[in-house]
Amino acid sequence: MTLATVLRASTYRRMPWKNGGGETVEIAVSPKGAVLSDFDWRVSMATVATDGPFSVFPGIDRTLSILEGNGMSLSIDGGAPVLLTQDSDPLAFPADVSVSATLADGTITDLNVMSRRASLRHRVERIDVDATSTLKVHATTWVGLCHRGDVILECGGNRTDLGPGDAFLLEGGEGADVVLSGRALCYLITIEST
Known about the structure:
Blueprint: E1 3-7, E2 13-16, E3 23-30, E4 41-48, E5 52-53, E6 60-68, E7 72-76, E8 82-84, E9 91-94, E10 99-103, E11 108-116, E12 120-136, E13 141-155, E14 158-162, E15 167-171, E16 177-193
Antiparallel strand pairs: 1-15, 2-3, 3-4, 4-11, 5-10, 6-9, 6-11, 7-8, 7-10, 12-16, 13-14, 13-15, 13-16
Protein name: HutD-family protein
Keywords: Plasmid
Pfam families: HutD (PF05962)
């Protein structure tokens, strides 16, 4: 059964980071209402205002994208720093290794997608919508986040307007067509069983 849900930015849950160093805005989580220790997957945004370590999540894979600000460098598991900016592709890495962040120049906001490695895998793609695009859904769970601009999303008879920060969650929609119309910068997230 296909379940389509519109997620409005005004309704997102705010919660402290696992390490207490900041605040996360939770866009969606499975199972619904799950806490940090027992989610299967999670999509959230966080504001990072100071340099420091990331929280460690055993058994979790993470993908990070920069939404606002001048970027930050990540040192992952002792490796050379990797600079992430708004123009960078989303960066995937294990969430259960040591990660240290250094801000490039001021506060940033990031998009953080996490999934439980033993049972799920996820992928994050950034796309510019200009006019109309049709996408085929190839995953059990699909999340479309409108970051900037406005987009009209149509899927399976559902039609909704998404403004900045709004998202659309499609569950059980493998094979469905999603039509995006307008001018917007969007992030598309697919989550599927391993």
